[in-house]
Amino acid sequence: MENRDKPIRVALSGCSCRSARPPPGRSGVTGRRYADRVSIRSDYPLTTAIASRLFAPGVVDSTSDELARRLVDDPALPDGTTVVSAAQRGGRGRLGRSWSAPDGTMLALSTLVDVGSIPASLLGWLPLLSGVAVADALEDVAPGIGARLKWPNDVLVSGGKIAGILCELREGSPLRAIVGIGINTGMTEDQRPVSTAGSLAMEGVDGVPDDRLASAVLARLGALVGDWRDAGGDPVGSGIAARVDSLCQTLGLRVRAELPSAELMGTALRIDGEGRLVIGVDGAAEQAVSAADITHLRAL
User: Where are the alpha helices (DSSP H) in 26-166?
Assistant: First the structure.
């Protein structure tokens, strides 16, 4: 039988949604091998109650790669199937960059989201609404933490990056996305891979169980995705645009946007209807960018 779950080959105008290739590795059904150990799901009772199916490997290369391998072997995996781990060997972000943290100092979570009813032009809102879900979940476990969004796919606390999001589309019927989320939990200042990293621990928040945080993320994400689907992907009608605007720290700042073939300097003015960042470019017309490395420079 032909495997209908293939990587997407079409270009999308959304923010950080990108096509995904099946990751290397081996799974039991086809002779490939999954992550070395799968923990008992009782380690995550709250998350198990929310996820349609939960896989909790002890150590993975990447939770998104682990979920993609399982999806290749079982294209019928339901919406909400989730992989969660606190030890990732090959975590990655946009443009193939690595996402690293010492074992036990971060939470990695990847979940399957049905986006078959969403117009392709609106899929750029998925990483943004996922960022809102993470910010809300952080507020649930650490009230007053004040998480903000950095367009297109980062979550900041006190200016430091506490979480990153990577959305990868998987062709099939229905069209689905793997939403990968990494949150720094117990990382100390000395353990930061870069000076701009943040964590719950660096904000004085210790002892939040991974299960509590993962379940909060899934609950918040499920509610926002549900509203988005009910509105046919309309970011305004679903209320997503207003939530993103209220949390997006990028808006109103002087920014540098690094594109594959150019660099723009200007002011981040707004997020347009497709989730693109509109920049008032210095000495030029406004320009909407769908994917770029954004550096916050200073407030106006």
Answer: 45-50, 63-73, 125-141
